[in-house]
Automatic annotation (TrEMBL):
GO terms for biological process, alphabetical: base-excision repair, AP site formation
Annotated organism of origin: Micromonospora citrea
Name of the protein: G/U mismatch-specific uracil-DNA glycosylase
Pfam families: UDG (PF03167)
Record's compositionally biased regions (Low complexity): 12-23
Keywords (A to Z) from UniProt: DNA damage, DNA repair, Hydrolase
Domain Uracil-DNA glycosylase-like residue range list: 44-202
InterPro entries given in the database record: MUG/TDG, Uracil-DNA_glycosylase-like, Uracil-DNA_glycosylase-like_sf
GO molecular function annotation: pyrimidine-specific mismatch base pair DNA N-glycosylase activity; uracil DNA N-glycosylase activity
Record carries keyword Transferase: no
Keyword Ion transport carried by entry: no
Signal peptide: none
NCBIfam families linked to this entry: PRK10201.1
């Protein structure tokens, strides 16, 4: 009789992939009605005092609002980029976001309300969101703040020529970095180039 297939070691490449896959299998996909009902909802931040990096999304998508997990839509590449960039020891499922503060990481958003697409937000919402973010950073005092989306950063912080990477001005006392938007709609970046962009931030965090 054939034996049970061996489970991959947790620290092997297959084991790292299995961690996120196992978590995904435990959680059903939101239904169409659940996604529609999630519009305008907010979700809690993943945050704690003194983090190494506070990642800042633009606003929650409907998948995130329906599940309560940041960057939850299956096509979003945030979690793979976080792992490829060296921030997490394995590829994590969005439902495991509660583990991030233990790694010195957190997640918030510039705008709290959920929408189907980020381009549904108004410039005024992004400007207000940047002001709210500044207060949050002053309160929680992360070492680095990484805004995930250069267009939202340019509008919210009135920096129309801002580029990816480190920014010249701090936010409160935190150093500021702009990363590409990991949405699957962002065709300008592949999983590999997104991972490399996250890796550049990781290198700065380690050395700085």
């Amino acid at each position: 009789m054939a034996g049970t297939p061996a489970r991959p070691a947790p620290d092997s490449p297959a084991g790292r992939r299995a961690g996120a896959g196992d978590a995904a299998g435990r959680h059903p996909r939101p239904t169409r009605d659940e996604l529609a009902a999630a519009a305008e909802r907010t979700i809690p931040d993943v945050i704690a005092p003194g983090l190494d990096v506070l990642f800042v999304g633009i606003n929650p998508g409907l998948w995130s609002a329906a599940t309560g997990w940041h960057f939850a839509r299956p096509g979003n590449r945030f979690w793979p980029a976080l792992h490829r960039g060296g921030f997490t020891p394995r590829l994590q499922h969005p439902s495991e976001q509660h583990e991030l503060p233990g790694l010195g990481l957190g997640i918030t958003n510039m705008v709290a309300r959920a929408s189907a697409r980020a381009d549904e937000l108004t410039p005024a919402e992004l400007v207000e969101g940047a002001q709210i973010l500044a207060g949050k950073v002053a309160r929680y005092r992360p070492r680095w703040v990484a805004v995930v989306g250069v267009t939202a950063y340019r509008i919210g912080f009135a920096r129309p020529k801002a580029a990816f990477g480190p920014q010249p001005e701090p936010l409160a006392d935190a150093r500021l970095w702009v990363l590409p938007n990991p949405s699957g709609l962002n065709a300008h970046f592949t999983p590999e180039t997104l991972g490399a962009a996250f890796g550049e931030l990781r290198a700065a965090v380690v050395t700085g």
